[in-house]
Amino acid sequence: MSESHHSRFVSVLTRNTLALILAGGRGSRLQNLTEWRAKPAVPFGGKFRIIDFPLSNCLNSGIRRIGVLTQYKADSLIRHIQQGWGFLRAELGEFVDIIPAQQRVTEDAWYAGTADAVYQNLDILRQRGSEYLLILAGDHIYKMDYGLMLADHVERQADLTIGCMEVSLEEAKSFGVMGIDGDKRIREFVEKPSNPPSMPGQPDQALASMGIYIFNTKFLFEQLIKDADMPGSSRDFGKDIIPRVIKDYRVYAYPFRDAQSGVQAYWRDVGEVDSYWSANMELVNVNPELNLYDTNWPIWTYQEQTPPAKFVFDDEDRRGYAVDSMVSGGCIISGSEVRRSLLFSNVRVNSFCKVSDSVILPNVNIGRHCRITKAIIDKGCIIEPNTVIGEDLEEDAKRFYVSAGGVVLVTPEALGQQLHFAR
Fold first, then answer.
1. Are both 233 and 124 inside the same structural domain?
2. What is the mean pLDDT of residues 391-416?
3. Does 192 belong to an annotated binding site?
4. 84 is in an annotated binding site
5. Radius of gyration of the chain (CA)
């Protein structure tokens, strides 16, 4: 197929696709970061939120009909989508619809699992109309052209295609893992196995599900209705739907690789405090794997209008500077030293501080003479003068959550600052 014909083929497919982003999860492994927000609403990368990555992937892939399924503490997520993603034109058939859990099927049932979240909205999905349904997790960081995966799905005449990546056998124990034949057809699917099946010809690697599914819409509806009638089902794609359809239907794996180099592409699950900290810290490297400066694949978001970052004072003992760091708009670094850190919008670092190896979320104010090392400071925290964080983990653990990797998570509540009120 020529390049122009292939592009035309893909554009027809993307127009006939409805994307559903599952964004209802709590993400409890992120500890207090998700105490007042859903995991997809957690800030990432200096100015974004996690949900911006699957949403931007859809837009950049030519998919402009998107539903976001919400449930757990969705207020900040909903406001972010309304503020940052309201530019699509309904007159052109484009939309980002927020679909909250509404107990549409029974009056006492919230979403039981990933498949149930889609099943409970079948009436809405029928109204939207589409030939293909692209189901996405709302809590991973990656850049992916879904159009290429759609083309592969159609060319193979698949009923279901699963986006997957190569991981070590040890890592595979925490994923849904596929056993495939030489044609990439899935012959086996096991959720979080203790003994994962390896890839053909690669005994130390396994194929793990990324939580990205392309279904033929009619086929998906049939399977969801069948699953809803099945006693004992946990109503989950990985545990129930996928293992059940492998034998009798055409189910294929789509390995996620860089289109030019053919190597494993960047993908991060930032579902734990250590992995969240690491993925953010990778961005301050000289050549990070995730290129946020790529004008061909921009990550869209909502961001308030802020002045440029400002660095003040140049005295010998009071110099404002940042090295090997990313500093967002609205920040003021006043006579302090920032190293290997990522500062989100409107962070104020007052004089005589040292901040290193840390992720500082928006609207944080760090008082004078503080030393902060290998920490995540949550949005809105006020750090009192002379505070030391990250140097004595035993002492830190008395006040804050300290991860297995030694990252200190500081939240307003842990500091006794009630930004949120439960009642």
1. yes
2. 97
3. yes
4. no
5. 23
* 25-75 confidence digits (pLDDT tens): 767 878 889 888 989 999 999 999 999 999 999 999 999 999 999 987 888
- Domain range spanning residue 375? 310-415
* Greatest C-alpha distance within the chain: 73
Of 128, 159, 137, 150, the C-alpha closest to 222 is 159
Task: Confirm whether 177 is domain-assigned.
Answer: yes
Same domain flag for 239 and 98 = yes
Of 285, 277, 327, give the one whose Cα is nearest residue 306.
327
Q: What is the DSSP letter of 139?
A: S
Contact 336, 322 (CB under 8 A): no
Distances (CA, A) of 301 to 53, 153, 380: 9, 29, 20
Planar angle of CA 61, 166, 12, nearest 5 degrees = 20
Assess contact for 135 and 24: CB atoms under 8 A: no
Pairing of strands 48-49, 43-44: antiparallel
111 annotated ligand binder: yes
Task: Return the residue matching tokens 């997809």.
Answer: 40
* Amino acid residing at 64: R
Do residues 348 and 379 touch, judged by C-beta distance below 8 A?
no
Taking residues 103-120, report their average pLDDT: 73
- The size of the chain, in residues, is 423
Q: Is the pLDDT of residue 421 over 70?
A: no
User: Which three-class secondary structure state does DSSP give residue 132?
Assistant: strand
Q: Kindly state whether residues 274 and 372 are assigned to the same domain.
A: no
For residue 116 the two structure tokens come to 């149930």
pLDDT digits (tens, 9 = 90+) for 329-366: 999 999 999 999 999 999 999 999 999 999 999 999 99
